[in-house]
Design goal:
Shape: globular
Distance between the termini: 27 Å
Largest sheet: 8 strands, mixed
Strand content: 15-25%
Number of strands: 10
Helix content: 25-40%
Radius of gyration: 18 Å
CATH architecture of the largest domain: 3-Layer(aba) Sandwich
CATH class of the largest domain: Alpha Beta
CATH topology of the largest domain: Rossmann fold
Order of helices and strands: EEEHEHEHEHHHEEHHEHEH
Number of helices: 10
Length: about 280
């Protein structure tokens, strides 16, 4: 039996955008909207969504220019404001009036933006290894691979490159690393494996960083329940930023996943326990 259904909806500028949906749309618990990292897609949330779906609806989109969604004609439309508009359309299509957002990395920034754009829909937010400030080391590492393709000849090579690029992930088994590789590369018409995102999105991200006041975005969720999960070895979310976040949001709950870098998979034991406790109220 399939664990999810596949859907598409149209963006305001006519792109066909893909998303997965898990669980019963009529479940009593608050639905969860899973927002992936900058270059990531719905596949990253499969284990989490499958685990949570017996009790609630889980919706996992591929952003424009990622995964199975259309690539934009104009790369300027990879701006976070446009992504939030896409999310609003998705929520309308799915009939989601209230959600808990789980945002990994870039997805966490979008969650903060939603608090300003559509504040009434947020019941709670989970920030997965992300805060208003991104450490320079982590940003440099990410931007180094976002804007250029890195073709691989086969899946064994893709797995090896995944391990090199994301060496501090908490993945353990060969199956888990292959799953991560399959969420990172896609098969191209040339027979090679290519990154599963539009490499042109790097420019829009750089522009957005100059335009947006990230601490003002974070203050937008200061009255919303927030759980922050940080990888102990993260080069994106620093302990200092975590402490600053706690001062800005006195009710912030946070947990650190030991021995893990950016980002936690949210399948680690300590993350599972924290998530289940946090979500039990919604």
């Amino acid at each position: 039996m399939a664990t999810y259904t596949e859907h598409r909806h149209l963006s305001q500028d006519g792109l066909s955008l893909y998303y997965r949906a898990y669980g019963d749309p009529l479940a009593a618990a608050t639905p969860i909207l899973c927002l992936p990292g900058l270059t990531r897609n719905s596949k990253d949330f499969h284990r989490l969504a499958r685990r949570l779906s017996p009790a609630r609806r889980i919706v996992c989109p591929d952003y424009r220019g990622r995964g199975r969604s259309d690539y934009a004609t104009d790369p300027k439309s990879y701006h976070p404001v446009v992504h939030i508009n896409d999310i609003r359309h998705l929520m309308a299509v799915e009939g989601l009036h209230h959600v808990v957002v789980i945002g990994t990395s870039f997805g966490g920034f979008l969650a903060m933006g939603m608090a300003l754009a559509v504040p009434s829909v947020l019941r709670a937010v989970v920030l997965n290894d992300v805060g208003p400030e991104v450490s320079e080391a982590g940003l440099s590492r990410i931007m180094d691979y976002v804007g250029r393709d890195n073709p691989q000849p086969d899946w064994a090579s893709a797995v090896a490159e995944t391990k090199r690029l994301f060496a501090t992930l908490s993945l353990k088994t060969d199956e888990e690393w292959l799953g991560s590789a399959r969420a990172t590369w896609r098969e191209g018409e040339d027979g090679l494996l290519h990154f599963d995102w539009d490499t042109r999105l790097a420019g829009a991200v750089s522009r957005a960083r100059r335009e947006l006041d990230s601490w003002s975005l974070f203050r937008g969720i200061s009255r919303i329940p927030v759980l922050t999960v940080r990888g102990e070895l993260s080069d994106v979310l620093s302990p200092d930023t975590m402490q600053h976040m706690a001062r800005e949001h006195p009710d912030l709950i946070f947990v650190t996943v030991p021995g893990c870098g950016h980002p936690p998979s949210l399948s680690e034991a300590i993350a599972v326990e924290a998530l289940d406790d946090f979500l039990s109220g919604y």
